[in-house]
């Protein structure tokens, strides 16, 4: 969407719980991934990659913030620590039509730390609160925070509660908690997603203490069933790499979660069948996904893009299916060749369709 698209912004506290969200992931949740994910789930809340506020103020806004209207509901994750710059970036993003502004207080990478934002701001809750207050004053859409439970030697029981208390006072509409500490030195970003122990119980207690605040959880959730187990305790669940690498699980999310914006009830379609892993099985659905992605890729190529920009997000789609290996081979090799077009997508899907039909005929 363009900068004029969001002028009729919604005014509401936050979204209809429970919410299923795909986490913001740098280099992964770009506009091409989000369009793809939206073909698989109409109800999942999608997040952009983290975009630094300063980049929005100085850079190519259409390139940074533009998105396809089909991506709604979609949230922008902002990185920064200057309240005035965060507020102006949020105002600009609202003009593009985003449904939420989320402040990154959880990323531990050296690149983010060098800008003094991300997880290191767990040590500066007053700065986070000032940014939230400034953004709330600048926009009508929800302003939220995604954080860790603490960093380094902080006591999570104290650090998380202190941060949340201050952002509540600043007007935050929701808090998404990655339920582990981050170590700012000595661990890579990958290790920071795996090594620090999870503490779901702390996030549950935080919700009990703040019943009127939307609190969602992130971290360590690998399957849709694990996500559903969180719902008695919390308002939302957020999956990251698990949802990206096994993206077919998104097809089952709409069976359990309402639409965040409209409140539309979970979708139960006649004739829709699902595997034990939560993958939708009926091939008519997958033919629609194929056609949508082929058309999208054709438009991207016509605008000067390359097929691989789109298909790199689709490689993990058919895990465990007949024909999945050939599907991956086609997307991994043929999509990279010069002049590759949408026919590669058709060939990859056909490999799965033909292998699945042969398997069913033999059973």
TL;DR?
Residues 22-341 form the DUS-like FMN-binding domain. By secondary structure, the chain is an alpha/beta fold.
Describe the secondary structure blueprint for this structure.
Elements: E1 19-22, H1 31-40, E2 45-52, H2 53-58, H3 61-65, E3 74-79, H4 83-96, E4 100-105, H5 110-113, H6 125-138, E5 143-147, H7 156-170, E6 174-178, H8 189-192, H9 200-209, E7 214-218, H10 224-228, E8 236-239, H11 241-245, H12 250-253, H13 283-302, H14 307-311, H15 324-333, H16 343-362
Parallel strand pairs: 1-2, 1-8, 2-3, 3-4, 4-5, 5-6, 6-7, 7-8
Largest sheet: 8 strands, parallel, barrel
Task: Give the distance, in angstroms, between the N- and C-terminal Cα atoms.
Answer: 47 Å
Shape: globular
Q: Specify the CATH homologous superfamily of the largest domain.
A: Aldolase class I
Quick one: how many beta strands?
A: 8
Based on secondary structure, the structural category is alpha/beta
CATH topology of the largest domain: TIM Barrel
Run of helices and strands? EHEHHEHEHHEHEHHEHEHHHHHH
**Strand fraction band?**
5-15%
User: What is the C-alpha radius of gyration, as a whole number of Å?
Assistant: 20 Å
* Whole-number count of domains: 2
Number of helices: 16
Strand order of the largest sheet: 1-2-3-4-5-6-7-8
Unreliable spans are 4-12
Text of the CATH class of the largest domain: Alpha Beta
Helix content: 40-55%
Overall average pLDDT: 93
The CATH architecture category of the largest domain equals Alpha-Beta Barrel
Cofactor: FMN
GO molecular function, one term: flavin adenine dinucleotide binding
Organism: Ensifer adhaerens (Sinorhizobium morelense)
Binding site for FMN: 77, 146, 178, 218-220, 240-241
């Amino acid at each position: 969407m363009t900068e004029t698209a969001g002028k009729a912004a919604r005014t509401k506290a936050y979204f209809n719980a429970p919410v299923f969200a795909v986490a913001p992931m740098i280099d992964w949740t770009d506009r091409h991934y989000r369009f793809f994910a939206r073909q698989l789930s109409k109800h999942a809340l999608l997040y952009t990659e983290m975009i630094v506020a300063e980049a929005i103020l100085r850079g190519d806004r259409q390139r940074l913030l533009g998105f396809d209207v089909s991506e709604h509901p979609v949230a922008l994750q902002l990185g920064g620590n200057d309240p005035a710059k965060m507020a102006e970036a949020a105002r600009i993003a609202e003009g593009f039509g985003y449904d939420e502004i989320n402040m990154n207080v959880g990323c531990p990478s050296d690149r983010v730390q060098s800008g003094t934002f991300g997880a290191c701001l767990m040590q500066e809750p007053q700065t986070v609160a000032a940014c939230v207050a400034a953004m709330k004053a600048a926009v009508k859409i929800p302003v939220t925070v995604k954080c860790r439970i603490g960093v380094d030697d902080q006591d999570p029981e104290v650090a998380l509660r202190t941060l949340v208390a201050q952002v509540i006072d600043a007007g935050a509409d929701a808090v998404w908690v990655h339920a582990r500490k981050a170590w700012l030195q000595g661990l890579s970003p990958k290790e920071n997603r795996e090594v620090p122990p999870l503490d779901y119980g702390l996030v549950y207690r935080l919700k009990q203490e703040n019943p009127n605040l939307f609190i969602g959880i992130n971290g360590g959730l690998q399957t849709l069933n694990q996500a559903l187990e969180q719902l008695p305790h919390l308002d939302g669940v957020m999956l990251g790499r698990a949802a990206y690498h096994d993206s077919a699980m998104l097809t089952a999310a709409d069976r359990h979660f309402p639409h965040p914006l409209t409140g539309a009830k979970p979708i139960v379609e006649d004739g829709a069948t699902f595997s034990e892993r939560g993958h939708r099985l009926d091939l008519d659905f997958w033919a629609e996904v194929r056609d949508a992605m082929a058309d999208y890729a054709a438009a991207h190529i016509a605008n000067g893009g390359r097929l691989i920009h789109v298909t790199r997000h689709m490689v993990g789609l058919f895990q465990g299916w007949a024909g999945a290996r050939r599907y991956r081979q086609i997307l991994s090799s043929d999509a990279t060749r010069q002049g590759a077009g949408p026919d590669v997508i058709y060939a990859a899907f056909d490999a799965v369709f033909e292998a699945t039909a042969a398997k069913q005929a033999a059973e």
